[in-house]
Structure formats: C-alpha cells, structure tokens
Amino acid sequence: MIGAGGVATVAAFKIAQNADVFTDFMIASRRKAKCDKIVEAIHKAGYTMDIKTAQVDADDVEQLKALFSSYQPELVINLALPYQDLTIMDACLACGVNYLDTANYEPKDEAHFEYSWQWAYKDRFEQAGLTAILGCGFDPGVSGVYTAYAAKHHFDEMHYLDIVDCNAGDHHHAFATNFNPEINIREITQKGLYYKDGQWIETGPLEFHKPLTYPNIGPRESYLLHHEELESLVKNYPTIKQARFWMTFGEQYLKHLEVIQNIGMSRIDEIEYEAPLADGSGTAKVKIVPLQFLKAVLPNPQDLGENYEGETSIGCRIRGVKDGKEHTYYVYNNCKHQEAYKETGMQGVSYTTGVPAMIGAMMFLKGIWRKPGVWNVEDFDPDPFMEQLNKQGLPWHEVFDGDLEL
Known about the structure:
- 35% of the residues lie in helices and 27% in strands.
- The protein is of the alpha/beta class.
- Among the domains are: 142-255 and 300-344 and 393-400, Dihydrodipicolinate Reductase, domain 2; 259-289, no CATH class.
- Helix 3 crosses helix 4.
- The longest helix has 18 residues, at 348-365.
- The two termini are 39 Å apart.
C-alpha cells in the first residue's frame, strides 16, 4: 500500500482485521515515520499482523520499481496523491504487479481530472496479464458498485442517475477539509459537469444547487459537481439519459472557500516569495504554490476524528424501467464519524474511502475481481462486494419507489 494519510490508515486497519486474506502487507510512503505510526496504532489496538514499512517517492518510477522488485507484491493499493497514479502504474507494468486506486489521475499543474489517461493503459495491462482496478473508494467506488447492483437486480434499463453525497458532521473547526486540502479544494473550485442525452454540459463552479433530504439527517443544500465516476458509468450503462453528482456544503465552508479564492490562496501555479533563512543570515527567493502553502496551515484531516460528531450519507438515486414499468431505487450508506474514530482513529470520510479500498483488494486476492486490463469497479460482479460492505462496517439500505426529489 502506498500512502500514509487518513484513508491509508483506515485501509491498513481493515487489512489487519482480515489477515486470513492479506497474508503479507507493506505500507510505503515518502515519510517512513508516518507508516511506522500507522503500524504502531494497529498493534496498540490489539492486531498482531506483521506489517513492513518502507520509504518511497511515488513520483519516482525507478524508486517504485526498486521497492516492488524487492518486496514482490501481488497487488499495489495506491492511496497516494492522484498526480502519482501514472508513475505507480508504470512501475507496476515494469515489475509485473497488479494495481488498485481510489481516485483518477490528474495533472499537478491543472485542476482537471478524467479517466482517459489511465484507460490508455488498458492494452498494456491486458498484454502483461495484469489487472488494474480504478476508483475503488466510496465515490468513485461504492457509487459504481451500487449502480452495477441496481442494474443487475432492479432494472432492465436505468435512465436517470443521481449520486448524492452528504457530510452532516461537525469537526468544530472554523474551516477544514475532510481529505487532502489540496485535492479537495481543486475538486470543488473547478467547473461543474453533468451528462444529459449524450452530451456533457458544463456549469459554473457550484452554480446549481437544491435542498435534498438525507436519511437520519434531513434536508441539506446540495451542489452539482463534476465527479469522475459519471464518465465511466454512462459509458458502461448506455441507457442512462442523465447522470449527475451532488455534494453538500455548509454556508460557513462556502464563505471561507470564497475568501480563499478571492485572495488567491487556491492558486495552483508557482509564485516567487522572498523568505528569511532559518539561521537568520538573510533571505532567499523561493517558489511556492499558494494552495500547497494553505494545506500546510489548515488542520490535518487525519487529526479531525476525535471531536468529529454527526454522520455521512452517500448513495445513488436511480430512476428506470423494470418489466415495462417505471421504478425508483435509492441505495445508500450512513456512517457515523465517532464510530469510525473508535475503530480506526480516523473520521467518517476517511473510513468510507478506506474500507472499500480494502474490499476491492480482497475481491482481487480472492480471484473474484481479476481480469487482465484496466477496469472500473462496475465492470465486475457487484454482489460479493456488496456482501462485504455489510460485513466490514459500511452497511447499505434500500428504498424502493420512493420520492427521489430529483
């Protein structure tokens, strides 16, 4: 596993809980001390798995190749930054290793993400006899599995798909992001995008919003965003006429975000800054990226769990036809932040991403999700994954023929 943040911490805990499937496990990251800290927390919680750690720069294909050649893993779980997907995939191809990630590639110098870069690896993975599983977090990830499950069991044709993501938690900070601030802010400040009648329609950032009612939470203002799983889902389910993604944001969060943008702190280009030297001997001109600097001063998402209250609610609301009749279907999970923290020391947003990453790896290692090429989660049988969601801490619930509000 590459990465040592909140999601990686959760995935590592869940791997340790399933030691019958995961017999040999290594955590690698740019800072080995972070990996060692995860292992220490897992052992302190009473799990006895022997977990190895290593230092690696995931931007460096040669370092990755050296590590893979030394450890010889069957599968790499990539929980590093989205900028590093392609270097890790390159190293996997060079060393004959299978691959799984939770977020699609995006270039570092442009806030733009789509699957084309990774789908381009399909032939190479196929020819090498290797499996690559893309987007195996919650959204993307479980959202695709939910959609595949609906298509398999409840619809002859799906026509309208809305993925709805609500975090109704309170972390008691004026402003904080629930995962890497750099990735989070890049994602929500770019233009919105949704699919309708064979066309992609662009919107202004957070331009369209409406209140949606979430189970056990109530109504929350929900904003239309671009999200990568829509791209694969409309390709794999061509009967879909419209596909959208909605996420909730509070007023305070949006006000802080507006200020961050207005003062230039969300910029991802380099600026030159004259900084005092640590020894006090003078100054030096350095280049910094404002958003990366902002990340350094914001609360670390890994530290939010202890006082985090409330819960998340993420699901798919689908309208389609079964046996000639129109039906609606809503499948969702609610995850309480405090329950996630008690089990793994992390908050619910990390938990809902880390658990599916482990389940995807389990599906591969059991031989259930294994075929040469590059695949999205909905390309596989959803049933065994759905079964594990109930067993591994993310139980799902269904509403048939209810009001989807959309």
